[in-house]
Amino acid sequence: MGITIRDAAEADRDAVVRVSIGAYAQYSETLSPERWEAYRDSILASFDNPGVAARIVAEEDGRIVGSAQLFLDSASAYGNPGLGIANPIIRLIAVPPEHRGKGIATALIREAAARAARQGADWLNLHTSDMMASAVRLYERLGFERAFDTDIHNGETLVKGYRLNVKQQAATL
């Protein structure tokens, strides 16, 4: 059976939380305990963010094995209209280690790009940091380019902006 991409239902909440924390738990080993706790809390808080336009999940054999959140702009994604991103933003792309290598993250990104294109957007944006090196390689392989003008700082951490031209790339993802 393959991977099915669909909108998350309210009944999926606990599974999506488990998948998300499971996917990001690897950073508990590289971040200080205080930073990991704050990061984990921000992941958990994202599930109550009213600005989420879509919660997308990947399902395999009836189990949630990946998830992502899609926002319409920087105001809804970060509460930061001053960042000036008026295109959709994908956040918290989560695939736990035991499910990686199956194309799940790519499928989630493809779905987000297709939705952005259907909305008439030119770009799909995201943010990441250097500690997520394997994710950065995936984004670049899929055609994301650096969007330096959308970089932000979280404390001392540079959170780098990336964007994908969905009109050019959506068909090739």
What would you say this structure looks like, in words?
The chain has six helices and eight strands. The strands form two sheets. The chain has a four-stranded antiparallel β-sheet. Strands 5, 6, 7 and 8 form a four-stranded antiparallel β-sheet that branches. 32% of the residues are buried. The longest helix is centred in the middle third of the chain and has 15 residues, at 104-118. The protein has helices spanning 13-24, 33-46, 74-78, 104-118, 133-141, 166-169; strands at 3-7, 52-60, 63-71, 89-94, 123-128, 145-146, 152-154, 157-165. It is globular and about 35 Å long. The protein has 173 residues and is an alpha+beta fold. The mean pLDDT is 93.
Write the layout of secondary structure elements.
Elements: E1 3-7, H1 13-24, H2 33-46, E2 52-60, E3 63-71, H3 74-78, E4 89-94, H4 104-118, E5 123-128, H5 133-141, E6 145-146, E7 152-154, E8 157-165, H6 166-169
Antiparallel strand pairs: 1-2, 2-3, 3-4, 5-8, 6-8, 7-8
